[in-house]
Amino acid sequence: MKEKKQNPAEETNGQALEAEQPAMDMGINADENMAGTTHLNDAVATEDELGKLQTQLAEQKDKYIRLLAEFDNYKRRNAKERIELIQTAGKDVIVSLLDVLDDCDRAEKVMQSSEDVAVIKEGIQLVFNKLRSNMQSKGLKAMESINQDFDVEKHEAITQISAPTEALKGKVLDEIVKGYYLNDKLIRFAKVVVGN
Question: 70 is in which domain, residue-wise?
C-alpha cells in the first residue's frame, strides 16, 4: 500500500485541527470569529448581579411608593387648608366691621328717641367716617373720577351729556357709582357720566 503523502500546508492544517480539538474540550474559545469574552460568562456572577439589581429595584419601588403617599398627603392637606382659608377669608374684615355695626345700632336707637336733627346727623357722620377708615385700613381706596379723562380701563360710561365748556369734553362730569381699588388692584369700575 502506498502511503498518501500530504503536502506541508495540509500537515499544518491538520495539526491546527488537532490543536483545536483539545481546546474545545476544555471550554476555551479558539474560534477567531467568536468574541473572546464568551467563555467568561460565569453563572454565579450573573446570579449575584441579578440579586443586587432586584434589591435595588425593590428599594426604588419602596421609595416611589413612599413619595407617592407623601405627595397624596400633601395634596389632601393643601386642599383642606385652602377650604379653611376660603371659609375664613373675610373673617378679619367682618370682625372689623362689627364695631361699625354696633355704632349703627346705637345711632338707630338715638334716632328713635331724639328729635335733635343736628345730633343725629353728627352721630351718623361719625359712623360713616369709622366705616371708611376701617375699609381703608384693609386696603380699600376710592377712585377719583370727576374731572378726570374718561378711561375705559377704569370707567364705565352710563351716559354722555354735552359738556358745558370745551375743556370738559371727554372728561368725567359726574360719578353715579364710585370705583374702588383694593391694594392698588381695581375691584370695581366707576359708573360715570361723560361730557361730549
Answer: 42-89
